[in-house]
Specification:
Radius of gyration: 13 Å
Structural class: alpha+beta
Shape: globular
Largest sheet: 4 strands, antiparallel
Strand order of the largest sheet: 1-4-2-3
Number of helices: 4
């Protein structure tokens, strides 16, 4: 079994590759970390760590539009995106699901 840091690296690479073909939802990142880890606080932290790394690699955070398009957030820096995700997650008060908080997009 890979160590935790290797799992995070693998997740970052996997989500980055997926973003070449489709949007990646925060809920997907959350689900993967929570399926792997028992402690939810650790999984939440790793979810945010993966988000930060994806933004640093060039993905944009935003929302999907009703017509299937993507509307990027004004925040583009990794720390600003993570801060917004954390704030909205706290306001949500539960685990993010498919339509919650953010999607990530790799501009072409």
């Amino acid at each position: 079994m890979p160590d935790n840091s290797q799992s995070i690296k693998d997740d970052i690479e996997s989500f980055y590759n997926e973003a070449h073909d489709d949007y990646v939802g925060l809920w997907q990142i959350f689900r993967r970390t929570h399926n792997r880890l028992i402690e939810s606080d650790v999984a939440d932290t790793q979810t945010l760590e993966i988000v930060r790394a994806l933004i640093a690699r060039g993905l944009l955070a935003g929302n999907l539009t009703k017509d299937g398009g993507f509307e990027p957030w004004e925040e583009e820096q990794p720390d600003a995106v993570v801060n917004r995700v954390q704030r909205e997650w706290r306001q949500l008060g539960r685990a993010p699901t498919i339509d919650d908080i953010a999607w990530f997009h790799l501009p072409r």
